[in-house]
Design brief:
With 137 residues, the protein is mostly beta strands. The protein is built from one helix and seven strands. The strands form two sheets. The protein has a four-stranded antiparallel beta sheet with strand order 1-2-7-6, with no helix packed on it.
Length: 137
C-alpha cells in the first residue's frame, strides 16, 4: 500500500531554521593543495594552487620520481578597536602534498615559478641510461 504525505509549505519555510548556522572553527576541513599534472614527451608540467602563500614560504623537494610541495600560509590580520571576528574560513598553517611520477626527474634542470597563487613546475624526465648487453663467452 502506498503512503501519502500532505505537503505543507510552512514546514518547508522552517526546515533547518533551528539548526546551528555556523560551524566551529575546529570543524573546518584542512586546506589541501589542488593541482593539475600533465605529461609531455620530455617533461611533466605541474600547476599547484597555493592561495595566500608567499613564494619564499614554498618549498619543493625532488627525490627520484617523488615530488614534495610544502608551504606555510601565515595569518596577517588587523582587528580594530570595537571589532570582533564572527567567522573566519580562511586557512592559516602548514599545507603539503607529495606525489610520485612514472619517471625519475632530472632535478638539475627542473624549474619553478609562482604567479597569482599558482605554483608552476616544469620537471624534465631523467634520460634513462641504456642498458648494456653482455655477450656470453
Amino acid at each position: 500500500m502506498s503512503h501519502l504525505t500532505r505537503y505543507n509549505p510552512v514546514d518547508e519555510l522552517f526546515r533547518g531554521f533551528f539548526v546551528k548556522p555556523m560551524d566551529l572553527p575546529g570543524n573546518l576541513p584542512t586546506q589541501q593543495i589542488k593541482m593539475d599534472v600533465t605529461e609531455q614527451e620530455a617533461a611533466y608540467l605541474v600547476h599547484a594552487e597555493i592561495p595566500g602563500a608567499k613564494k619564499e614560504d614554498i618549498h619543493v623537494e625532488i627525490e627520484g620520481n617523488q615530488v614534495s610541495i610544502s608551504s606555510e600560509v601565515k595569518q596577517e590580520k588587523e582587528v580594530k578597536d570595537g571589532e570582533r571576528v564572527l567567522r573566519s574560513e580562511r586557512y592559516y598553517g602548514q599545507v603539503s602534498r607529495t606525489f610520485q611520477l612514472a619517471h625519475d626527474i632530472d632535478d638539475t634542470k627542473a624549474q619553478a615559478a609562482f604567479n597569482n597563487g599558482v605554483l608552476e613546475l616544469t620537471l624534465p624526465k631523467k634520460v634513462a641510461a641504456n642498458g648494456k648487453r653482455l655477450t656470453i663467452n
